[in-house]
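Field reference: sequence -> structure
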Amino acid sequence: MNNSTKTGATLDDWRPEDDSFWEQTGKKIAYRNLWLSVPALLCGFAIWGMWGIITVQMLNLGFPFSQAELFSLTAIAGLAGATMRIPASFLIRLSGGRNTIFLTTAMLLAPAIGTGIVLQHKDWPLWAFQLMALWSGVGGGNFASSMSNISTFFPKRLQGTALGLNAGLGNFGVTTMQIVIPLVMTMPLLGALGGESMTLVKDSGWIFGKIAAGTPTWIQNAGFAWLLSLVPLSILCWFGMNNLRTVSPGVDSSLGSTLAAFVKIVWLYTLSFVPAGIGLYLYLPAPTGLGLLNMWLAMPLIIVSTLMVMKLTAFGTMKDNIAKQFAIFGNKHTWSLTALYIVTFGSFIGFSMALPLAITVIFGISHVPDAAGVMQHTLKNPNAPSALTYAWMGPFIGAAVRPIGGWISDKVGGSIVTQVISAVMVVASVAVGYVMMQAYGSATPETWFPMFLGLFLVLFFASGIGNGSTFRTIGVIFDRQQAGPVLGWTSAIAAYGAFVAPVVIGAQIKAGTPQIAMYGFAAFYAVCLVLNWWFYLRAGAEIKNP
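Structure field:
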């Protein structure tokens, strides 16, 4: 055992499946890394998801952008975070856990500061805001490396619990962001350094209720506030976390090795921005992009091109390591679990991104016909619920039950839990779609809001439980060398839910048929219900209820 473990140095000896080693040495180190990983991941989720709240306040402050353009900001952040998870899933083996978590946490300072700057300028062009949304994807990418890292520290019998804790408590970043951002926007947090306030032109809100139009608001604090946690947290990760040489061969605690690890991380993250940026340019309408591709073509193009760029530009030891980790694509369970993880995490993050603006657009307006009988969606609803008061509840529940899902799955098996929650999500999605349809055709949509919110909370609850069960299944099926990359890959593809949900829900609201979006999600959940049964629950399944 390396005697410098207390300083976060590289560990040569790591045997978590050895009960004696685990109890005497491994347990303490593993949990120390876990408890530092959680707040780092929490901040990553907060930076990634903050555009879901920022866009609501931009609408309330009268920024000169359409609802569709505001939905695009949320979707861009979602797509960037998902794309960055693809290289992030390989970072632990290439660069070591401590090195990766420290640097990727420190990197969050850039989009936090940049977002605070652009939000002070209403008159800046849309592309400036889209660029910051793209940059915020760094926070989304961090999940893949964080999960890959924690999976290497714990024995198989504790995979569901450990990964559920890391992801579940880390996912509180979405809730934390949805509570903290509306709060810090009410005060001059950084004094004169933080810039001037703006005045609300529409009613806003926070966790304790409505904030009236005319109130001064410091929207830039949505970015600046995270500096207060990211700086000390980066320092703690550097001095408290570990690299494992058994997982990251060639990584040690020397300056040269550490700098080489940083270069690999920055190189792969930078590369992932290229296909994401090009794909978005081809997808987004003018004036920002060309509008040549629809979402269903843009996403696979970005995913495939990101993988190809990684493979073709890898150099030195990176080339061999990436080639070894690409072996996961030859395993059919990688693909089945990718689909199942979309059901759970894809739904969680997608709904988290889309819900605040959906509440504002559907329930903030009285939907009444004009003289010709054509439904209009422009009249302000005086009894509208504030998205900033309620939107945090769903992500809070989804994150809170995630460790419970892992714990239950460790006891009864992951696939049976996944089956139950998939069935619940089919029913709840259809019900939400019906309620959205009724609300979007009502002069008093707020009467449908309690039912809408309650059903969405059911969806978040089920997706949270299912996240834990899917982790458990991956940890059981794959060996220690492949489990990390598979966790990273599946989480990357599922994270595209943060792109799909805002785009689909926004498009269907614009078309006047918001229910179609939810019916489409329900159909996908039903397909995955059959997929899960076929691979893991039927009588002749190759691996039964992992």
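Note: The mean pLDDT is 89.
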